[in-house]
Amino acid sequence: MFEALFQTFDEPESGVALSARLAALREELLRRKLSGFIVPRADQQQNEYVPPSDERLAWLTGFTGSAGMAIVLAREAALFVDGRYTLQAAQQIDASAWRVAPLVDPPPESWLEQHLTAGDCLGFDPWLHTSAAVEKMAALCARVGAELVPLDSNPIDAVWVGRPAPPLGPVSVHGLQFSGESEAAKLERIRHEIGRLKADALVLSDSHAVAWSFNIRGADVGHTPLPLSYALVPKTGRPTIF
Q: Where are the chain's structural domains?
């Protein structure tokens, strides 16, 4: 019910603008000797709400829903959405360039299996995918004789003119009257668990976990008081927040 309050109601991009963006991406993929590229609606922390600088799916396709993925090949391009967004996606994309397909049943891997061929190189940004998703895509590519290629930089960023800068909002302390437990007490419990597991340190890659562990809040993500961050908590010594 409340999700509608967070949707984007801006006028969709014109088909001409979207077509030019898709063409620019394909030129960049050709320059990198890639057969295709996977575009998730995601940021590095897999947040539901992402900053404007990570709205690559919306920039490329015109689709502004909160979940989805696109796959761009040399001659085919598909936008995968769940049932909530089927009508919205059809209204926002350039129908002459994109096909709207299910995100779940059948999954995007089924579409890829029909369109990839042996020798193809499918690129992806490893910062934007979970390990489980990468393993699934890699297995699919192996079945058809293609290769899944992790990229050092995102090709969309290379062609996105006027891309917003990544957020760098202020970070504030979340007081004990709100958190109910001090940062020191939380870190002590975390370190106890690190020792129990016979590990040397814990890497936190989830901004929610960082915010909770250190009793901090931020303003990097809309509708969620998070600082986009990572942390390293050693078994002994000072932790580091990135």
A: 3-159, 172-241
Q: Which residues pair with 173 in a beta bridge?
A: 216
| Neighbouring residues of 5: CB distance < 8 A, sequence distance ≥ 6 | none
How far is it, in rounded angstroms, from Cα 143 to Cα 185? 49
CATH number of 3-159: 3.40.350.10
**CATH H-level superfamily of 172-241:** Creatinase/prolidase N-terminal domain (3.40.350.10)
Model confidence over 45-78: pLDDT tens digits? 999 899 999 999 999 999 999 999 999 999 999 9
Cα–Cα nearest to 36, from 89, 108, 86: 108
CB-based burial of residue 104 (10 Å sphere; 0-12 exposed, 13-18 middle, 19+ buried)?
A: exposed
DSSP 126-178: GGGS-HHHHHHHHHHHHHHT-EEEE-SS-HHHHH-TTPPPPP----EE--HHH
User: Which pLDDT score is estimated for 13?
Assistant: 66
The tokens 């934007």 sit on which residue? 128
Nearest CA to 50 out of 40, 35, 60 is that of 40
**pTM summary value:** 0.88
Per-residue model confidence as pLDDT tens digits over 93-147: 999 999 999 998 888 999 999 999 999 999 999 999 999 999 999 999 999 999 9
Position 206, amino acid: D
Question: Using an 8 Å Cβ cutoff, are 33 and 16 in contact?
Answer: no
Place of tokens 């901004």: 207
- CA dist., res. 151 & res. 141, Å (int): 16
